[in-house]
Amino acid sequence: MVVSNSLNLPTEEELTVQEVNLSSSSLRAASFHLGKYCENINNEFMLCRSENPQDPRKCLEEGKAVTNCSLDFFRKMKKNCRQEFETYAECIDKSSTNFALTPCRKTQGVYDKCVLEKLNIERPYWGYFAQMKVHDTKRPRPQIEEQIYPDASDKLSDDAPRTDAKYQGRYIFQ
């Protein structure tokens, strides 16, 4: 990748945020409730990324907001349902080699009940995050530059030379 001197890269301070320093089993245990808790902020970030696929620098603030939301969620989890969460995450970690949730349904029930009672977050049903949803945003829609190719022809001429097919006929599937 070639970079010129006129390209403004973000500073180290702009890129540095506190990380969510948890194990895979802990993230897997909290995934449904975390996704529900930070849904709007994450949707805003994903919308920004889909609108700016060539320049991720435009979405740094939205990315920081997602990380801060995750940290806030885990702080509340630690304060309210720490024991149930740790039991459920340990079960996920030690009961299978691929972090399967199936062997831990009893501990999941206790954990879900605690999160519902103390954080008022109901575990979303299976497939909730795969459903299409409309996200309402305050951000202005980006201006899409229409690309015009002046040398493009309207269509190919009918008298263009056509060679015979090298292997079998061209219309084998018709």
UniProtKB/TrEMBL annotation:
In Swiss-Prot or TrEMBL terms, this protein is called: NADH dehydrogenase [ubiquinone] 1 alpha subcomplex subunit 8
GO BP of this protein: mitochondrial electron transport, NADH to ubiquinone
Give its localization.
Mitochondrion inner membrane
Q: Which GO terms describe its cellular component?
A: mitochondrial inner membrane
Its function? Answer: Accessory subunit of the mitochondrial membrane respiratory chain NADH dehydrogenase (Complex I), that is believed not to be involved in catalysis. Complex I functions in the transfer of electrons from NADH to the respiratory chain. The immediate electron acceptor for the enzyme is believed to be ubiquinone.
Q: Does the keyword Electron transport apply?
A: yes
Question: Which PANTHER family does the protein's record reference?
Answer: NADH DEHYDROGENASE [UBIQUINONE] 1 ALPHA SUBCOMPLEX SUBUNIT 8, NADH-UBIQUINONE OXIDOREDUCTASE
**PROSITE patterns attached to this UniProt entry:** CHCH (PS51808)
Q: Report which superkingdom the organism of origin falls in.
A: Eukaryota
